[in-house]
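Figure 2 data, in text form.
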Amino acid sequence: MTQPLPIQFQETDLDGLSRVPGRIVVLAAPDQPQSPAFRKLDRLTRGALARAVGSEAFTKLKPGEALDLAFPAGIAAETVQILHLPKKADRAQARKAGATVGRSHGAAATLILAEAHARAADLAFGLAMRAYDFAAHKTGDKPAPGPVALMAAKPEAVARAAAPMAAVAEGVFFTRDLVNEPANVLTTHDFAARLAAMQELGLEVEILEEDQLTRLGMGALLGVGQGSESPSKVVVMQWHGGEKGAAPFALIGKGVVFDTGGISIKPAAGMEEMTMDMGGAGVVAGVMRTLALRKAKANVVGLVGLVENMPDGRAQRPGDIVRSMKGDTIEVINTDAEGRLVLADVLWYAQ
């Protein structure tokens, strides 16, 4: 899978700034005292940074945006990127600033002078998320991304704060890879195998095959996939990190690896996007991966139904009657005051 860009957390050392190659990122904000790193770079570049921050172009920037100085005199770096990030920036602003750095990052090394900024870990998270690049099927030589180092006053503390976010980034990348894969690669077999591989992280993974699904009475799910050469499957992932015996949260995701519409075939326009009809299952898989990486203190079950909906002589027809599982209705998942989802317990059992 695509791995997040590794970031090295180092103690702030300004002595060798003039010899640092590649890109240097420094934080600044109008009408605020500038940091020691900013003042050091400003002296080395003969006041270029102060002139840039005092310019109309910089003052028009929103927090999280940046101004680049190309090939500044007095230092070896080819670019100094001045990030507009106030000392009391919120999480969203810091992550946006990190995304700005990630968008600019290429083959050259990047050094971020975060110093004592309280949101240094969020800045690193934004950078890692923005640097995602799905290149699994691209040919030709492509330079590897350059190394990234973040200098902070307390690098160990920033690294500890960044570790849970790095787990989130890996879970997101896992989901993005699944959604980006073409249907001839991400078959139901391949999808299930990728989920089974997460047993190495401590997840319990069970794959239910078609004969088991038939015995469970899952006729509706089997009906969707009966026209495909790829067998339908249900994958159950469990993470036991909470109190023993406590009822788990359950997450259920739709995993239609390709959806032609079956006999009622969809219009050709946009058909290539039907590879993304497994996005729900991809999200559940990414969440379960993140929980395992973070060693979350929670009991969670992730269930995904993996099918391919194709036209065939055996495909389900409109008006067909299928027998499916009986079970309780799923509790409504509410949102909080800020519009974020609040998970509710889910009961789902066969009778």
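Caption note: The first helix runs from residue 36 to 44.
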